[in-house]
Amino acid sequence: MRSLPEVSSRRGNSRGTSRWIADAVRLLALLSAVVGAFSLGFPQTFGLAIMALGLLFSRMFRLPAPVDAVFCTTIFVATWSGMLGLYRTVPSWDLVVHFATIGAVSAALYLVVAGWNVTREPGSGTPARAVVILTFSLGMTVAVLWEFGEWIAHRYFTDVIIVGYDDSMGDMAVGGVGAALAGFVLAYRGGAAGETAGHGPSGEPAAEQVAP
Asked: Are 197 and 62 in contact (CB under 8 A)?
């Protein structure tokens, strides 16, 4: 049986690494936007700027470090996949990105609304099914808005973005699966994922208790 200091140290190291990853991705996103302003066209630069601003979301709401890291990484990959044309050149890459990104964003949003007391955080007596349903609903909302945003970008800015009925339905379907999976992770790992927004300057609670 591990001692309390040992367990706390390992968890602290894990959170520290996750936070470092998230901040590194945010820095890369900022540098991308700055470089893009001097070397890319308006649509690409605008997309990179939106990404850089969006990655501040998880930091601003003090989400748990692991959620922060996954949130930032998936959005960074999703944005640069479009910049590099991977959605067109790599089969099914679009579906993989939608699955991962919608899952990460839906988990982050659940923790934010829990921090606002709209619902209770995972692991605090909330029925698992309620966590899954709300996370799934948030994810599907984001998936629809994503497709709407792609249509606007395609219609008014660039035809590089792929749009179409089959593409949109597939993206939303896998996004829903990712959101549902994120809900299950939140529900059944509530003790770890339930460190909700607003618990401290780095998203960690002030103290932890470890069962013997």
From this structure: yes
Rounded Cα gap, residues 134 and 131, in angstroms: 5
**Averaged in consecutive runs of 10 residues, what is the pLDDT profile of the chain (212 residues)?**
43 78 96 90 87 94 95 96 90 96 98 91 84 97 94 81 87 97 90 46 42 41
The reported pLDDT for the residue numbered 1 is 44
pTM of the model: 0.81
- Delimit the domains of the chain by residue range: 4-193
Per-residue HEC secondary structure of the chain comes to CCCHHHHHHHHHHHHHHHHHHHHHHHHHHHHHHHHHHHHCCHHHHHHHHHHHHHCHHHHHCCCCHHHHHHHHHHHHHHHHHHHCCHHHHCCCHHHHHHHHHHHHHHHHHHHHHHHCCCCCCCCCCCCHHHHHHHHHHHHHHHHHHHHHHHHHHHHHCCCCCCCCHHHHHHHHHHHHHHHHHHHHHHHHCHHHHCCCCCCCCCCCCCCCCCCC
- Residue 52 has a pLDDT of 95
Amino acid (one-letter) located at 54:
G
Closest CA to 122 of 137, 107, 136: 107
